[in-house]
Model the fold of this input.
Amino acid sequence: MRIYSHTSLKQAQRCYKAWAYKYIERLQPKERPAHLARGSNLHEGLFHLYDGDEASMGVWVLESSDEDVAIIERYAEHWTDTWDVLHAEEEFRMQLGDHWVTFIPDLVVEINGEVWIVDHKTTANIPDEYDPYNMTDFQHLLYVGGLRQLGYNVKGFIFNYIRTKAPTEPKLIKDGSRIANLRAIDTTPEILQAFAEMHGMETMEDVQDKLMILRHTPNRYFQRHFLMVPDEAVEQAMADTEAVLDELAAKEENDGPWPRHVISKGGGYMSCGKCDYQPICHADLLGINRDAVLLDYIERPRRSE
Ligand code: SF4
Done:
């Protein structure tokens, strides 16, 4: 029985060509895009925060940027959790038809006797809305299905948003009579309140107005969205995924074909613009000698998938 990682499955759903570059040619870009490296460093900080190993957390702090450390500190101050952590980044395995899929939830927690799966989402801006039944990403439905298969009574999924931008520190205008850019300032009410008090401006009308807006809009830095997951949605997602895996396994057996997905100029997660394999894909598409492009890739280390 073939075992696929959830990451590999996601890549196949995104584009078979990219899947073949990654899992057949075993290519990996020499350098990781900065936003991905940042996201995985923050995930690591959160892992140490929740697994409670202070020595590892100390090493992480020493090796991380001040900005990343400040985000994790503000997160820990913001959420005084009563979560009982059952698993932090542990690998599980689920069966889908003739295939196994491995997956690693960021956290599995118990809240008031109910089990929830947590996904940390580091992002430049927390979206106003998120479509939880996004057809291109069944991750949360599969994770819930996988843990239910293993006997966990999972209630649902928590999207744990963490913004990577720090709140803006207020400043005074040149003559010191007002706070600069007050109307548009992107900060927290606590920071603005403290600054206004330090400068004796807390009773000014525009400061009061801004504080009221900040206090009555959803938190812009940390948010948690809870999603209760019905069995029907999980069953559909598992059936769809099993069909994708059947197709992928048949392609592997027949050595392809590995078609490119509909080439899009969009900037979203599924777009070619966000694909690690765009340079080699374009070289192959245009029939250009790929050797020069291959210099920007290294061979992915082997591990069981
Ligand atoms: S650039 Fe687009 S078509 Fe090419 S491998 Fe990547 S996602 Fe697929």
